[in-house]
Task: structure prediction
Amino acid sequence: MKITSLSPPATAIAIFTAAVFALTATAHAAQAPPRPMRSYPAPKNLKVLPKNLTGQQVHHIMEGWAGSLGVHCNTCHAEDPNHIGPNGRPRLDFASDSKPEKSTARLMVKMTRDINENYVSMVPVKSGEPTPKVTCGTCHRGHKDPEPFVIPHEDRRGPEGMPPH
Ligand code: HEC
Ligand code: HEC
Result:
């Protein structure tokens, strides 16, 4: 259908529609600009995680640890005073081993692995049920230092109403 063959009102509508379409498209583009993919550099100082992990995979694991402990990255990673970020604060030097929490976290990775490989994997499970697994969150539950467990009062009874030992 050629615009020249249309009656003047139809032409106006066609042009109007095209203009609205163009505007909507522009608005849409403004709302959702193509975001550049964040790139995560390949790790260079892994001692307990597999050395062939990509930067993206390491980042994913790190978000899990931070969430399990209820902390931010800077709990384990030291600031690099020579690299100031766009917010005016020093960037974190992820490869640095200067924070004791990072060393403790490495110990924890080895401990968790040992618990799973040498103990939890021995627990009998019904066929078809998944192998149970201990994770950082099993103990930490969103806290840097796992909270001491207090037995709820109503459960403080031994067999046949006997007091607990
Ligand atoms: C509970 C402590 C802890 C927290 C929280 C943590 N990390 Fe880590 N991170 C580590 C440890 C330990 C390693 C080294 C692992 C190894 O030796 O295999 C590491 C390694 C890394 C590396 C690789 C550095 C390199 O070049 O080898 C990056 C990148 C990183 N972390 C980013 C992050 C980010 C981003 C966050 C926050 C979302 C974060 N980390 C939170 C403990 C932590
Ligand atoms: C079996 C229980 C258990 C598991 C599993 C566990 N942790 Fe821990 N973690 C502890 C205990 C207990 C402490 C000592 C807390 C304290 O000092 O009060 C601790 C301490 C830490 C600390 C030092 C906190 C501090 O205050 O300096 C870090 C960091 C940590 N764990 C990270 C991890 C990460 C990461 C994982 C998973 C890879 C993990 N933990 C798995 C029990 C556990």
Notes: The chain has a mean pLDDT of 84. The pocket of heme C (ligand 1) is lined by residues 43-49, 58-59, 62-63, 65-66, 69, 71, 73, 75-77, 94-95, 101-102, 105-106 (CB under 6 Å). The beta strands are 79-84, 90-92.
